[in-house]
Design a protein that fits this description.
The protein has about 140 residues and is α+β, with helices and mostly antiparallel strands. Helices cover about 35% and strands about 25% of the residues.
């Protein structure tokens, strides 16, 4: 009978230890969940952007370079004044556009204040998409 109590005690200790370990492991997943990282404008801009063509109209690389359909060579890009996209082409000519909006699928550019002062339409927009299919679908809707 004494041997039974020892076996029973060992069994109960084993069960108790298992339950304790399970509870500790289960509680490690109960902490604060990490929030998904919000992408910066630079991260959102990186990639291929399509407008009317089956080839990308603009390819922006995360190393600060870009290529544009129909242009020669590789240029450099930067975001300036928090809301302007500055493109400097292969020849050193600079083009600045207002960065109206950028998200995971769509890039919207517009004229800068200087362009508007020079007579540009303040409502003009250049909209590009991350895939040709999105560009084609949205161009046909407009």
């Amino acid at each position: 009978m004494d041997e039974r109590n020892v076996s029973r005690r060992s069994f109960l200790k084993g069960i108790g230890s298992t339950l304790l370990v399970s509870a500790v492991i289960g509680m490690t997943g109960c902490g604060k969940k990490s929030q998904p990282k919000t992408k910066t404008k630079e991260e959102l801009l990186a990639g291929d952007w399509y407008s009317f063509y089956t080839k990308p109209a603009l390819s922006i690389y995360d190393d600060g370079t870009y290529t544009m359909y129909g242009d020669y060579g590789t240029g450099h890009w930067a975001i300036v004044n928090e809301d302007q996209l500055k493109l400097t082409d292969f020849y050193g000519e600079t083009h600045i556009m207002r960065l109206v909006d950028v998200d995971e699928s769509k890039l919207t550019l517009g004229p800068t204040e200087a362009d508007i002062a020079d007579g540009a339409d303040p409502d003009a927009r250049l909209v590009m998409y991350h895939t040709y299919e999105e560009a084609e679908q949205n161009q046909s809707e407009n």
